[in-house]
Every structure is written in C-alpha cells, then in structure tokens.
Amino acid sequence: MQRAPSTNAAAAEVLHPFQKAREYKRALNAVKLEKVFAKPFLAAMSEHSDGVTVMAKNKFSLVDMLSGSADGEIILWNIPNRRPVFQINAHMQFVRGLSFANNNALAADTIFVSAGDDKKIHLWSTNKLKE
Predict the structure, then answer these.
(1) Which whole-number Å values give the CA distances from 79 to 20, 42, 120, 124, in the listed order?
(2) What's the half-sphere exposure (Cβ side, CA atoms, 13 Å) at 72?
(3) pLDDT score for 96
C-alpha cells in the first residue's frame, strides 16, 4: 500500500506531466479572447475640467451632442469633428439634466434645457450661443 504525499512539492509531482503546459495554453487563450472581444477606444473629448455627469443626443441631428459636468459647464459637441461648438458655464454646481426640445425636425433653431444642483432650469437656444 502506497502512502499519499503529504507536502505540496510531493503533490506537484503527482500531477500530469503536461499540466503546466495546458494551464499556460489556457491562460494565453483567455488573454487572446479578451483582446478579441474588447471594444476599441475611439476618442476622448476632454474639454471638461471636471467629471461628466450627464449627456444628451439630438435625435434629429447626427452631429449635435451635449455634455454637462460637475463644475456646471455645458458643452455642445460636433461629433464628426470631435470638437466643441460652444462651452458655457450654465450652473453653479453639478449639471444634473440635459435634454433637446425637438419640436420639429426642420426647425431653424435647436433649443435645449438644462437643470442643475443650484435648483435652476435654463432654456437655451443653440443659434444664440453659436453667435
């Protein structure tokens, strides 16, 4: 009758001779799959000086997007160019809500609303801000 090994070194000798190679191959495959399914990083729009708390997309325009930050700043972005169209210090504290008021797809002016922790709601016209 043989005795079972009592130490870790002795237990490692009992493993299959190809066990190390198999584990190495599994780890390599896991890393490769992680890279295959990873989403690509496209761009950083880093004009805000504080963290972005809210974003809004204009459903009638593929170009316009708004972002509001923790320091009260709102930026209207031109998405294809990845550049800000304008920046405004809209609120004294966090910007908590942004929404486009799209009444008509053919409207000459785009209006949006912002709400903040300063307990104020602002109504903005993009045509006035672009001037």
Answers:
(1) 49, 12, 28, 20
(2) 12
(3) 94
In angstroms, what CA-CA distances link 43 with 17, 53, 93? 47, 18, 27
How many domains, the chain? Answer: 1
Give the helix/strand (H/E) hosting 128.
Answer: helix 126-130
**pTM for the whole structure:** 0.65
Strand blocks (E) in 13-93: 52-57, 64-69, 73-78, 83-89
pLDDT at 44: 77
125, containing H or E segment: strand 121-125
**CATH number of the CATH domain containing 90:** 2.40.10
Residue 66: inside a domain: yes
